[in-house]
């Protein structure tokens, strides 16, 4: 068996002259054997879970709660591990190995919607699995999980071969899985097959770019060792948004299929993978996940070519450990900005809501608002004449008494006034004034206050645009307040622990 250089550079430090890694995730190789001596070909594997930091689970729970609240709708991006790869690159195999479950397989695109995988270690022997989509929770088990995912996908994206940007969440609570949340996206394909839309490539590219563009996203790029890395479409996409590769980790699948030249590929790093490479062996046939890990370890220890790759860059356990470390680091780094953005968005939404017009809830309020809008002061009531009402807005409690008094005074004043009208010019002027002002106001008021006008009721009804905006702001404020409570709880816990 070829010996390994235990001090060789890791994936974070491979590039010659690179004195400092783009992100200090402090990745260390996972011990694949127990502390007691074992033979090289029969390693004792720990489960794929780690107690790197007691804060990891609370941090991840907080982000998952924010994602469930859909805080991204408010423009607040969450730290996310996004899994991308060309079609048939082996994404499903990698995710199956991390989660210890079987995902849908078949020809063409298996993942037709963004699949949010929430993995959580728990001590119970019986796993707990369920799907979340369209506001409902659907429990399932390991035997039927693939079938349940296909059924949920069909409900979301239709029974054909099209795709959708509506996410499907898979929650896996199982002994030994790493605490991870990842988003698996549809595999990249350029040529549509029968039943797929002609613009399938553009649709998939749009979804992928939406998820990997935010700086808070970590890109897990799945590459097949059988292809030339620079030609992979997934590499080209990630390079467009992460030119230096500082937030891209590559996992190379099917290492046993084309071992020749793999060492050179992952050490030369011609495509700027800043977080390094991890080479893995896919599970074959009916192998259990435990058997697959034993075979994988033996492959990288005994193969004349693959054994030369540093142990910190091979194996699913190493991949799981790196992902957990990267995830914890990016969440800790982004959390203060998330708190700041939530507060800013909340304050802005409250301020915008306060600037909106008053929501009228009674006829009295509608009457006051109506008089204020049209500036009525010359209101005419049959049998009593014209009544001055403008100043009554400030005295709602004595409105009826004031109306009665004013109507009596106005009626008397009208009699007196007529006796002073001794000039045709004044009469014409008054007639014109009445025509332009009083009569038009009467028509307007009758339209709103008449028995058949229904104007007051119409005032109580907000326009659809205003009502929609008010509802949106109410929802936004509630979402942001709930999000603020979530991050406040985790920040308080961090402060106490410090």
UniProtKB/TrEMBL annotation:
SUPFAM superfamilies in UniProt: P-loop containing nucleoside triphosphate hydrolases
Keyword annotations from UniProtKB, A to Z: GTP-binding, Motor protein, Nucleotide-binding
Signal peptide: none
A Pfam family this chain is assigned to: GED
Domain GED: 402-495
GO cellular component: cytoplasm; membrane; microtubule
Domain of life per record: Eukaryota
Keyword check for GTP-binding: yes
SMART domains for the chain: DYNc (SM00053), GED (SM00302)
Renumbered residue ranges of the record's region Disordered: 1-21
Keyword Nucleotide-binding: yes
Domain Dynamin-type G: 75-336
GO molecular function, one term: microtubule binding
Protein name: Dynamin-related protein 4C-like
Species name: Rhododendron griersonianum
């Amino acid at each position: 068996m070829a010996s390994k250089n235990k001090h060789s550079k890791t994936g974070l430090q491979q590039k010659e002259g690179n004195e400092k890694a783009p992100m200090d995730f402090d990745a260390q190789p996972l011990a694949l054997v127990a502390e007691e001596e074992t033979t090289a070909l029969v390693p004792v594997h720990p489960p794929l879970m780690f107690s790197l930091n007691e804060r990891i689970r609370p941090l991840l729970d907080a982000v998952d709660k924010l994602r469930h609240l859909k805080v991204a709708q408010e423009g607040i991006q969450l730290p996310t591990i996004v899994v991308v790869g060309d079609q048939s690159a082996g994404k499903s195999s990698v995710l199956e190995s991390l989660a210890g479950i079987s995902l849908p397989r078949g020809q063409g695109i298996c993942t037709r919607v963004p699949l949010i995988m929430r993995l959580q270690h728990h001590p119970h022997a019986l796993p707990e699995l369920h799907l979340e989509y369209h506001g409902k929770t659907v429990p399932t088990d390991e035997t039927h999980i693939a079938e349940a995912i296909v059924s949920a996908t069909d409900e979301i994206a239709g029974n054909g071969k099209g795709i959708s940007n509506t996410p499907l969440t898979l929650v896996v609570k199982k002994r030994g899985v790493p605490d991870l949340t990842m988003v698996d996206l549809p595999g990249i394909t350029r040529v549509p097959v029968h039943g797929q839309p002609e613009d399938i490539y553009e649709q998939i590219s749009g979804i992928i770019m939406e998820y990997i563009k935010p700086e808070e996203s970590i890109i897990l790029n799945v590459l097949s060792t059988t292809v030339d890395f620079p030609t992979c479409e997934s590499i080209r996409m990630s390079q467009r948004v992460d030119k230096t590769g500082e937030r891209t980790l590559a996992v190379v699948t099917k290492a046993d299929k084309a071992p020749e030249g793999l060492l050179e590929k992952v050490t030369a790093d011609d495509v700027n993978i800043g977080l390094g490479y991890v080479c893995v062996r896919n599970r074959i046939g009916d192998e259990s996940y435990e058997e697959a890990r034993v075979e994988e370890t033996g492959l990288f220890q005994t193969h004349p070519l693959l054994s030369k790759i540093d142990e910190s860059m091979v194996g699913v356990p190493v991949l799981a450990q790196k992902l957990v470390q990267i995830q914890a680091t990016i969440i800790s780094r982004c959390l203060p900005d998330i708190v700041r953005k939530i507060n800013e968005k909340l304050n802005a939404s409250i301020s915008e809501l306060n600037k909106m017009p008053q929501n009228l809830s009674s006829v009295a309020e509608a009457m006051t608002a109506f008089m204020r809008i049209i500036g009525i002061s010359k209101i005419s009531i049959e049998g009593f004449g014209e009544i001055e009402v403008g100043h009554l807005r400030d005295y709602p409690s004595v409105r009826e008494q004031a109306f009665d008094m004013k109507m009596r005074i106005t009626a008397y004043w009208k009699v007196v006034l007529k006796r002073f009208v001794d000039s045709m010019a004044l009469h014409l002027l008054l007639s014109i004034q009445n025509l332009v002002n009083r009569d038009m106001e009467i028509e307007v008021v009758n339209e709103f206050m008449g028995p058949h006008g229904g104007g007051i009721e119409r005032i109580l009804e907000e326009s659809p645009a205003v009502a929609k905006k008010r509802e949106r702001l109410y929802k936004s404020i509630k979402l942001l307040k709930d999000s603020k409570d979530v991050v406040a709880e985790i920040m308080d816990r961090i402060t106490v622990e410090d």
